[in-house]
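Researcher: Next entry in the queue.
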Amino acid sequence: MQSIINHYDTDDHMLQRVHVEEHMDDRLGGPNSVGRKFLSYCKNENVNPLDSIPDVDIKFKVYRISDFDGKRGTFYVEFVLMLDWLDPSLELCENNNPDFHEHYWPKPELLNLSPDSPDLPDFESIVPKYKKDEKNCNGFGIHRASLTYKFRAILYSRLDFRNYPFDSQALELSIKLSSIRIPGAKQGKRPKACHPKRWRSNDGGHELIPECDNLPEFSLIRLASMTYSSKYGPYPVNNELIEYNNDIIKDKLYQDQFTLQIIISRDSVSVLWNLVFSLLVIDVMVFTAHGIAISELGDRLGINLTLLLTAMAFKWVLADALPSTPYLTTMECYVISTFAILFFQGISFWFISDAFNYRCGVEEFSDKRDYRDWITGKKQAMNSTSTATMDMSCETIHILDRILLMFEVLCFLTKNIWMGYQIKINGQIAVSKKTKFEDLSKLKEYSMIKKLTHIGGENDVKHKQLLRRRSKQYATKGEGKETRSSSKVFVGRAKVGAEINALPQSPSLSPPPPPPPQRVDEAGVKE
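Model: Structure for this entry, 527 residues:
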């Protein structure tokens, strides 16, 4: 294509005529923009181009999910992204071979990418395809276009380990459609992202091929998806609801982001046998300490401390398997309950053994008229007016020891019934019955209390003022002390002066100009 540019002099006489050939890249269209034929079609139909941006159906076909890293919060995925839309301006193309630089061309952006993602498509070189349906068999229109991208990426994901080892994670594939540039409009237009209900519904929508599961610890349970505005997210928070509703009323709410959640559930069989069952054995062995005589405190505490150290090893195993989290997981609660039982048993053993030794463990106190005070340890005679501290019989002490045993059994049953309930409500069968889109914004460990903003500039002004004060202090100290040499004062002033000059100058804070030099004539009189 050629255009003619005429050059004239000041008297409007034409000097020369220049033919300029336009390059292909000078066309209006391209990725995330519309071209000339799209604008021409809107003009012929007398419609606003801003209101004619086609909706885009988004479909994912996943070929591989692997390398799930719970500590980093990443996973590897290979998938094909399919975009479909209806563009009536394609009827203006010739020979059913359109140049999409002249029409509508959406551009997707894959979110949550990690820096070490291996392979991303070249959005500039992959051109849309024209899939004309002469008979309009699907009933959605004749002039359909589609784009297909293949991604190999490592993505970040928000993970929730509260129910570990019965946890389910939502791995998200999130696509955001870039704003469409329209010539003559001050702002672009956000295209609407839609579910694949038109041309891809016969294939079942989003697909995960059977060979895509490469997660040995997890099972792929279900899929969930949602379209929403990138401005507010899938679930607007309370302080955004007023603005969100105003955008709905003013018809300014755009729907430019699409997220597919792949719900995976951990296979907890290995953890149940290696951790839960092992801790259950430790909990049962706690009861054996009651088979030792009450007076043998050292032997009883020997069993207690041995079991406590064994349980501590499980805590280190959990710490190595999970990332640092600001909450306790289900498994950590189970381990800590074992610590609590052992701690309570050890303290109770000491109390019961101490009472036994002071009340019924020594032969010299077989006579009930004598007793040893528990606080002072003195042997005292029992009379009608004296009161023994912690006065109890041997029978009472034995009953107290058995009550402690029953309490430990009750704690054992309670914690294991609770663990069984967690298995039931968080198992894979229960997770597969859910259909909702998981709200990951409710995870407080990934959210801020309020929005943080900063412009800056005030620190530069304060720093200048501080340096000026320091400069004056150097000058004052140099004049008041004779011990300080003039060279040191000069060096100090020069250092501060250099720091001031290095800062960006402000008209309000710039130092006053130095006074003009005074000349002295031969008679010694200043001019």
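Model: The CA atoms of residues 86 and 144 lie 5 Å apart.
Researcher: Noted, moving on.
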